[in-house]
Specification:
Blueprint: H1 2-31, H2 33-37, H3 40-50, H4 55-78, H5 86-124, H6 127-133, H7 138-177, H8 181-191, H9 194-222, H10 227-256
Helix pairs in contact: 3-7, 4-5, 4-7, 5-7, 5-8, 5-9, 5-10, 7-9, 9-10
Length: about 260
């Protein structure tokens, strides 16, 4: 019994220490961001790596999510004689929730793991130590550009996800099922509010971008310099990012609804 309590205590203290280290790492990364932002080509290259290279999976997923929403929404609303409001259902579901959340989960699975593996391998091959030997700050040179690339890319990817998702809903509801096109678009335009819906969705995507990118960077920088250490860090990135996104989504939604 005492051994079990001891193990639990060690795990709790280790988790708290790791959380504190992650907070210090995040604050320090922000403090040296000015140095990295002066080298715009670095940030632009990382935006291409994290954002543009994630476009295919984001857009294809958005199309199918929108098509499923259109199909399910029509079948549900038809029971209540409100099938013309399927456009509102698709748009609000995507802009408020599914756009930011699904984009963040896909971003963590594709770009987050790539960032963690890349930085973990740089640590394992002592490239970060070599930078320090040459008086180059590895946080400013490696971490900060990737952080800002992730923060910039996430809202853009979420907006594209919502846009393509609405198009997928239109294809199913209007082109396939036969809902009136004018009713689909007009009800969407009159019921989707810019501040309450679109701006709140953008805020969520920015917060998710900060969270997912920070976790990926920290796990990569903190990974043990072995093949097994990098693989475990990559797994932790996906798990921690997914749980953090879902928890933050609940917290942000609760604040935005009041």
């Amino acid at each position: 019994m005492l051994k079990t309590l001891e193990n639990i205590g060690h795990q709790v203290t280790d988790a708290i220490l790791r959380l504190g280290y992650a907070a210090r790492f995040f604050i320090y990364s922000l403090s040296v961001s000015g140095e990295s932002l002066r080298r715009l080509p670095l940030v632009i290259r990382e935006i291409y790596f994290t954002g543009v290279m994630s476009l295919i999976i984001i857009l294809v997923s958005a199309l199918f999510v929108g098509m499923v929403l259109g199909l399910q929404g029509y079948n549900t609303l038809q029971r209540y004689g409100s099938s013309e409001a399927v456009g509102v259902l698709v748009a609000l579901a995507l802009v408020r929730e599914l756009g930011p959340v699904v984009t963040a989960l896909l971003f963590a699975g594709r770009a987050g793991t790539a960032i963690t593996a890349e930085i973990g391998l740089m640590k394992a091959t002592e490239q970060l130590s070599a930078m320090e030997m040459m008086a180059i700050n590895p946080i400013a040179r490696v971490v900060a550009p990737r952080f800002w690339a992730g923060v910039i890319s996430m809202p853009i990817l979420a907006a594209l996800f919502s846009l393509v998702g609405v198009f997928g809903g239109y294809l199913v509801a209007v082109q396939l099922i036969g809902v009136d096109s004018g009713a689909f678009w007009s009800q969407m335009q009159s019921n989707v509010d810019f501040r309450d819906d679109i701006v709140n969705g953008v805020i969520k995507s920015v917060v998710f971008g900060v969270a997912c990118t920070s976790i990926a960077l920290f796990e990569g920088y903190d990974a043990p310099p072995t093949a097994e250490g990098v693989s475990r860090a990559t797994t932790r990135t996906v798990v921690n990012s997914s749980l953090t996104v879902l928890a933050l989504d609940f917290i942000l939604t609760a604040f935005m609804l009041h």
